[in-house]
């Protein structure tokens, strides 16, 4: 008699390396996957292929000299990295930033969030197998924002715009009119882009209920940003521990319920709306005056330590600095959002298929420069 | 005119007939593929809000030529772990069936290599041989990505063959013949109007069989790098690239023939009608590729078995009743009935059927 045991098709798991060089590992991430056919049994994340010892480099440079290296951490959103680091030094040295510079910083940080989310949602849809169309549309809008960054900093990738005590130079006269145009353009685009997901049956089938991250796991792993908020964790540094002048603006913290890929996408789209709301409030309020405090080039903060954190587009980004009253930090540590957000990846992908693995990984939105440092 | 009669009239008999048409088919296919590549790259460029190739020749028209020269000059790399013979033969095995399909499709009245009395059956049988080539490529490459891509291909082709054949049976019932020339002759009203659901089913199944979006899982660059083609370079890669476009052209030509009344049409020369209709169907494939994301393998299978298959059965049933009711000539008002049937069925079935599958228990 044939038993159930005999009828079961016995399969043998095999190991497949995704990355470090793979079109969808967002740089040089490696996932050592154990697969049973198409089913992901387990993964072992391996990173370090981009390691440059940035934190050690900080200790060999002056406080100001480290700013360009923060650009290279999360190269998708350098403005936020600049800001986080400058806030930490300012806290350590007790520097007061002029009012105008604070407004410019907020504008840049929110524009950076928009630019980052363009890539995040665009590449996530690309990971779902859309043939570059949403990606191209998202990049088209991102380019418009980059034009603004180009206007103020002369750069299109590593802006290096923030300075300790303010920003490197004032915004040009044509900046604000251009910004207003882009705000209205992006408002329309966000609406149009959201329709892509809401009315696309295949995308819904691919994203809804896929790669669920439970609220408890998100909290226990220290996940932050849109990934945590999609799981229902209502935490945002801009509200919980306001820095710069964020307490002056009205905005909401969008959250999801299911914690799946769909929610992560939706939260990012909603965050773009909120960023546009902040920009709309900031533009008419922007005061005149200096854009940089009178800070010497070689700063010697008093001995001690300081930690400053910001809500970067990817989540909580922190800089911890220890000073020994010399011109270089005694110790610098970055609390990288991407690395910590990756810690729950294994939980999220187990039991899903190869195609889901790529989508779930894409929905976390990481930059390997920040993971490896 | 039957093929045998045409061939006998040729000076030198059958051999000249075969030689002439074989060269013509290969020439026609290569020209169409170049046109298709150009159309796809420019069309997608426009849809994706970018330019597309526009530097080589006027309007970038020489881009396919430049691409061809480039791949011919590239190094041919065979991985150490590959089964060298299988790796070498695979692109040829994949290419042969495409030519075989075109052998029975008339470009204009009588212009056909072989007007078989089982023409449509032959197309169905031959079109799935390409899978052997793809599986050989996947297996022979000694690469896990390639193998996964090849396995997906086999799974998809085995499943999609069924709704594809069932969709064709509807056409065969209306035409009352398996011969391609008879099917074209019967299309005073194109069968796309008489069999709209059959067209949709066939189009979806054809896209799945020939690796076109949203069913392009065999290649799936975001997941499997390039799937079964990952380890191919130079000329052999070009062969696979050619196969992909040639298959798309061949399937567009089949759809043109059985649903869009083939070469028939007013004013323009018949061959031009055939080419225009083929490119129109191909454009539909470009459009879906640019618009839709990719389904997952289990969703692909579920779509075949839970959506296409039942609808194909119902479509066949409805068609059979219509043929029984009007055995001699099909009245024009069937167009409205069949469109209504399609609308209702697709709406109802999409309520029953959800693509989402869920987590696999491990």
Summary tags:
heterodimer; A: 373 residues; alpha+beta; three-stranded antiparallel sheet; 16 helices; B: mainly alpha; 68% helix; globular
Describe the structure.
The complex is a heterodimer of chains A (373) and B (362). Chain A has 16 helices and eight strands. Chain A has 373 residues and is α+β, with helices and mostly antiparallel strands. In chain A, the strands form three sheets. In chain A, strands 1-2-3 form a three-stranded antiparallel beta sheet. Chain A has a three-stranded antiparallel beta sheet with strand order 6-7-8. Chain A has a two-stranded antiparallel sheet with strand order 4-5. Chain B is mainly α and 362 residues long. Chain B is globular. Classes of the chains: A alpha+beta (373), B mainly alpha (362). At the A-B interface, helix 5, helix 6, helix 8 and helix 15 of A face helix 7, helix 11, helix 13 and helix 14 of B.
Secondary structure topology:
The complex is a heterodimer of chains A (373) and B (362).
Chain A: H1 4-7, E1 14-18, E2 30-36, E3 39-46, H2 54-59, H3 67-71, H4 78-93, H5 99-127, H6 133-153, E4 162-163, E5 166-167, H7 175-198, H8 201-207, H9 215-220, H10 225-230, H11 237-240, H12 261-285, E6 304-312, E7 315-323, E8 331-335, H13 337-341, H14 345-349, H15 354-364, H16 368-372
Helix pairs in contact in A: 4-5, 5-6, 5-12, 5-15, 6-7, 7-12
Chain B: H1 3-9, H2 14-47, H3 63-73, H4 84-102, H5 119-127, H6 130-140, H7 144-175, H8 180-185, H9 191-194, H10 196-209, H11 221-224, H12 234-259, H13 270-291, H14 297-325, H15 334-352
What does this entry show, briefly?
The complex is a heterodimer of chains A (373) and B (362). Chain A has 373 residues and is an alpha+beta fold.
Task: Calculate the terminal CA-CA distance of chain A, rounded to whole Å.
Answer: 61 Å
- Biggest sheet details of chain A: 3 strands, antiparallel
Structural class of chain A: alpha+beta
Structural class label of chain B: mainly alpha
> How much strand of chain A?
5-15%
What share of the residues of chain A lie within helices?
40-55%
Could you report the average pLDDT of chain A, rounded to the nearest whole number?
89
- Rg of chain B: 21 Å
Radius of gyration of chain A (Å) = 22 Å
DSSP strand count of chain B: 0
Poorly predicted regions of chain A are none
Instruction: Give the largest interface.
Output: A-B, 40 and 40 residues
Count up the helices of chain B: 15
Number of beta strands of chain A:
8
Rough outline of chain A: globular
């Amino acid at each position: 008699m044939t038993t159930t045991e005999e009828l079961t098709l016995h399969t043998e798991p095999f190991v497949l390396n995704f990355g470090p060089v793979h079109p969808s590992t967002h740089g040089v991430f490696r996932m050592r996957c154990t697969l049973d056919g198409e089913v992901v049994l387990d993964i072992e994340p391996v990173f370090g292929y981009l390691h440059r010892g940035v934190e050690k480099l900080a200790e060999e440079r002056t406080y100001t000299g480290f700013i360009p290296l923060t650009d290279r951490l999360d190269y998708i959103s350098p403005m936020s990295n600049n800001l986080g680091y400058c806030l930490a030094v300012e806290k350590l040295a007790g520097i007061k930033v002029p009012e105008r510079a604070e407004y410019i910083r907020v504008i840049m940080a929110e524009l950076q969030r928009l630019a980052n989310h363009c890539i995040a949602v665009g590449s996530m849809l690309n990971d779902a197998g859309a043939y570059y169309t949403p990606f191209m549309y998202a990049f088209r809008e991102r380019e418009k924002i980059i034009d603004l960054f180009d206007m103020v900093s002369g750069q299109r990738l590593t802006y290096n715009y923030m300075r300790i005590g303010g920003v490197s130079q004032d915004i040009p006269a044509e900046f604000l009119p251009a910004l207003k145009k882009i705000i209205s353009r992006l408002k329309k685009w966000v609406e149009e882009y959201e329709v892509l997901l809401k009315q696309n049956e295949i995308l819904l089938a691919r994203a809804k209920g896929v790669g669920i991250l439970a609220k408890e796991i998100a909290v226990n792993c220290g996940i932050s940003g849109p990934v945590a908020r999609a799981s229902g964790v209502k935490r945002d540094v801009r509200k919980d521990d306001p820095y710069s002048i964020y307490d002056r603006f009205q905005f909401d913290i969008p959250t999801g319920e299911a914690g799946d890929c769909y929610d992560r996408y939706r939260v990012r789209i909603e965050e773009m709306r909120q960023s546009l709301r902040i920009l709309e409030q900031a533009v008419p309020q922007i005061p005149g005056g200096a854009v940089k405090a009178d800070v010497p080039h070689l700063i010697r903060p008093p001995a001690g330590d300081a930690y400053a954190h910001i809500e970067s587009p990817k989540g909580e980004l922190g800089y911890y600095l220890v000073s020994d009253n010399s011109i270089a930090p005694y110790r610098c540590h970055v609390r990288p959002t991407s690395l910590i957000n990756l810690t729950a990846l294994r939980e999220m992908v187990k039991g899903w298929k190869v195609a889901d693995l790529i989508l779930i990984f894409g929905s976390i939105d990481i930059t390997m420069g920040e993971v490896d440092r | 005119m039957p093929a045998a009669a045409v061939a006998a009239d040729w000076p030198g008999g059958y051999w000249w007939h075969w030689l002439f048409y074989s060269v013509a088919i290969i020439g026609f296919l290569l020209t169409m593929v170049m046109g298709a590549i150009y159309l796809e790259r420019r069309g997608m460029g426009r849809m994706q809000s970018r330019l597309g190739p526009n530097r080589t020749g006027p309007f970038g028209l020489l881009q396919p030529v430049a691409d061809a020269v480039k791949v011919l000059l590239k190094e041919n790399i065979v991985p150490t772990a590959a089964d060298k013979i299988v790796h070498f033969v695979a692109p040829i095995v994949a290419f042969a069936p495409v030519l075989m399909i075109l052998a029975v499709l008339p470009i204009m009245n009588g212009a056909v290599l072989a007007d078989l009395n089982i023409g449509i059956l032959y197309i169905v049988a031959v079109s799935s041989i390409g899978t052997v080539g793809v599986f050989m490529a996947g297996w022979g490459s000694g690469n896990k990505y390639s193998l996964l891509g090849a396995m997906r291909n086999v799974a998809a082709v085995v499943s999609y063959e069924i709704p594809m054949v069932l969709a064709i049976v509807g056409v065969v019932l209306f035409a009352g013949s398996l011969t391609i020339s008879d099917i074209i002759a019967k299309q005073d009203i194109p069968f796309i109007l008489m069999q709209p659901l059959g067209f949709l089913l066939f189009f979806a199944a054809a896209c799945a069989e020939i690796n076109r979006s949203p069913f392009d899982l065999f290649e799936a660059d975001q997941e499997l790098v390039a799937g079964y083609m990952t380890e191919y370079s130079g000329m052999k890669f070009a062969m696979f690239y050619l196969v992909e476009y040639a298959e798309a052209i061949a399937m567009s030509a089949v759809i043109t023939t059985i649903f869009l009344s083939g070469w028939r049409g007013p004013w323009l020369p018949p061959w031009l009608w055939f080419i225009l209709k083929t490119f129109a169907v191909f454009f539909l494939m470009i459009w879906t590729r640019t618009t839709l994301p990719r389904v997952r393998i289990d969703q692909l299978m579920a779509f075949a078995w839970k959506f296409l298959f039942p609808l194909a059965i119902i479509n066949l049933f409805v068609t059979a009743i219509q043929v029984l009711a009007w055995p001699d000539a099909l009245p024009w008002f069937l167009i409205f009935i069949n469109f209504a049937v399609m609308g209702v069925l697709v709406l109802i079935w999409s309520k029953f059927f959800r693509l989402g599958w869920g987590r696999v228990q491990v």
